[in-house]
Amino acid sequence: MTAFFPQEIIRRKRDGLVLSEEEIAFMVRGLTDGSVSEGQVAAFAMAVFFQGMSMEERIALTRAMTVSGNVIDWSAAALPGPVVDKHSTGGVGDKVSLMLAPILAACGAYCPMISGRGLGHTGGTLDKLDAIPGYNTAPEMDLFRHTLKRAGCAIIGQTPDLAPADRRFYAIRDVTATVESVPLITASILSKKLAAGLEALVMDVKFGSGAFAADYDMAVELADSIVAVANGAGLKTSALLTDMNQVLGRTAGNALEVREAIDFLTGRGRRDSRLYTVTKALAAELLVLSGMTDAGTAPAMVDGALSSGTAAERFALMAACLGGPTDLLDRPDEYLPSAPVRKAVIAPRRGYVTAMDTRMMGMAVMMLGGGRRRADDAIDYAVGLSDVRGIGFRTGPRAPVAVIHARDEDSAAAAADAILKAITLGEEPPEALPVIRERRSLAE
Fold this sequence. Notes:
By secondary structure, the protein is an alpha/beta fold. It has helices at about 5-15, 20-35, 40-50, 55-65, 95-105, 125-130, 140-150, 165-175, 180-195, 215-230, 255-265, 275-290, 300-305, 310-320, 330-335, 360-370, 410-420; strands at about 85-90, 110-115, 155, 200-205, 235-245, 340-345, 350-355, 385, 395, 400-405, 425, 435-440.
């Protein structure tokens, strides 16, 4: 057996050389068992950050991180439909997963969604679900399997035995300014998805002022990397590039977003057109990618899952199986926390919203206590924004750009100032831009 030394592997990558599959596997084993020190992991991450990785290296890194822990095998469950999932690179107001998973379940697919928490200005799916009393985002594997088989969907957090190398690697990258590396982001995302035993995956890669990849070209690079590596590792994957230059939907904040998702599924409220477009497109993409139907039929299947109420039933069943209230959809206001202070944000003059600093909108939620600066920060599930108006909205004294939900008047005032700084007003309505810019697949 060839003897490897971490410092030699780091040196080779530092000098721009291509690492072998065996060298990469050695580093990942050291990540997992602790035999590679934090300093060496940080140096390796920095070398990759500056020198990049070939597609072959990215595939090798992803595979090694995937098998660093357990890989779920759903074959024993004899599920009568494909196992699929979606992943978003994150944004403000992005509650798509809450609707997408039950929609797919209603169409006959199975969606074991391993989600994350919010950090910085972006919200996390697990934080939204934690706003539901009793909902268990960290269940034992038996309960996870039971919920998926019964409800068709189960949204939970990463378990300790799924891709443990990624957990340590990300923690070190987070404190060494090496998060923004396309090869490392690719391996981080896909190692968890491959470990979840998926048959098909669709990526929602955000671009714009509220996205991780503010620059469109970086978003394309990330989408292409994920699509190439996932397919190279045997997972059918495509990506949609979606606009995050404004809040997605009408709410931002954990309990408020759950309520919007419930209204979306039950049809109680008018569905925000951009949120509906993104959710429907991602769901349809997965139905086609998994071989359940063709591109002509998939959109109608999604609409049927919503109009029949089946998607709402699947969400309710998932929540109940994982410890939430059995009548959540009937009485959401009795279960979801609410903030005592509400403040409408009125623009200083009439005009059209022509642009939005979406990151600043997310920061406004953080100012209210609805986000975290550090991974161990506590958050307030009740606070946030509702009735958020997007680009093209005409403001006026009776037409607020958002409604703030806060614990006190001081935090509401600070958030209002941030929101007003985040929007740009003009005399004429701006050109309407599509929320979905492009689809990327292996053939692109």
